[in-house]
Design goal:
alpha/beta; Rossmann fold; 2 domains; four-stranded parallel beta sheet; 13% strand
Length: 348
């Protein structure tokens, strides 16, 4: 349940007088119908928590409605001010570049519409609690009774070409490790960076713990979550002396939904800055020194809605957190694409 103080604060902002305000959730999108359905269900949960507030959603790629469709619905309903929420765990390329580009493109077309972009879910106490409860769910449903000091946790993140976003998963791991009290914990990724799940599992089975809990720190299901669980199944067949638990991902946990509400409150309070302390676009982060100042632009127009999309020829510069002015017309190569524990797809 959403605390009454939060509910009242949001309601008073959106439901009193003019202008008419609404909320737009901006998702990534997936080829997985289950993932798309889960995201739509989360939006439904948010609508139930915040009745009488116009709430719409859309995706960057692979699914419909696209973000501009949701914005159209809000605008056609008379909404003149929109709070746009990135449905992203961390601020990597999608939250920093792609979604702002889509929003600014739309704002270019409808300049009288006010769109305020909130920050990502991020490292948040509510998100940590949601994650811990998912992990404990898997322990409570396990057949064996094994002390948590004899258990090892493997937290799996999405993986990005942004080291700051990747480092957030390591912090999540540490908070869960200490908070729950496991004997040991490690971090792995499902793609783009290293180590991937399978090589990580092959390493940690040698540590000697009786139980290994694999927790995908993901919002929704999809190809990557399926791949993570498949890797666990393959390794568990070889190491039958270890109990492997596949913890459920975050999904529509009540504390996740509440975190989205908190991001709305951040906009109300004017507290919407992303954490850019180690952003590779602003600082010469170790190993990514050449990416300072790269233009932030969306690379998803060609897969909006799951198919070919139209081109935009006007300027896509934006001011949500950074000022990156020089041209960058292609993805910058990931500096560690040849890492032996990384994805084959990014080998040089």
């Amino acid at each position: 349940m959403l605390p009454e103080s939060k509910r009242q604060k949001i309601a008073s902002y959106f439901n009193v007088g003019k202008p008419k305000r609404g909320i737009m959730l901006c998702g990534h999108g997936s080829r997985s119908e289950s993932a798309v359905a889960e995201f739509a269900n989360l939006v439904f949960r948010l609508k139930k928590l915040l009745p009488n507030i116009p709430i719409e959603f859309g995706y960057l790629e692979f699914a419909k409605p696209i973000i501009s469709d949701g914005l159209d619905k809000l605008r056609e309903a008379g909404v003149t001010e929109i709070v746009a929420l990135p449905a992203m765990l961390f601020a990597a390329g999608h939250a920093k570049n792609d979604i702002p580009s889509v929003l600014n493109t739309y704002n270019y077309k409808y300049p009288k519409l006010k769109i305020t972009y909130s920050r990502e879910l991020g490292i948040d106490n509510l998100m940590i609690k949601a994650a811990s409860e998912r992990i404990i769910e898997s322990i409570d449903s396990a057949k064996l009774k094994i002390d948590k000091h004899d258990s090892m946790l493997l937290v799996v993140g999405r993986g990005a070409s942004d080291p700051d976003a990747n480092s957030n998963i390591s912090k999540i791991t540490r908070l869960l490790w200490e908070g729950i009290g496991f004997g040991w914990a490690e971090t792995a990724y499902s793609g783009v960076t290293f180590p991937l799940v399978s090589p990580a599992l092959e390493k940690i089975v040698q540590v000697g713990y009786k139980r290994i809990i694999v927790f995908p720190y993901f919002l929704f299901t999809g190809i990557l979550v399926d791949r993570i669980y498949k890797s666990v199944d393959e390794v568990s067949k070889v190491h039958s002396n270890i109990e492997f638990l596949k913890a459920p991902y975050l999904n529509d946990h009540p504390k996740v939904v509440e975190t989205f509400c908190d991001r709305v409150i951040d906009v109300i309070d004017g507290d919407i800055n992303m954490n850019c302390q180690l952003c590779k676009y602003r600082e010469q982060v170790l190993g990514f020194e050449n990416e300072v100042g790269l233009a932030q632009e969306s690379h998803h127009h060609h897969v909006e809605g799951g198919s070919q999309s139209h081109d935009h020829t006007h300027d896509h510069t934006h001011d949500h957190t950074h000022d990156h002015t020089h041209d960058h017309s292609h993805h910058h190569p990931y500096p560690h694409a040849d890492h032996p524990l990384g994805p084959v797809t990014l080998k040089k």
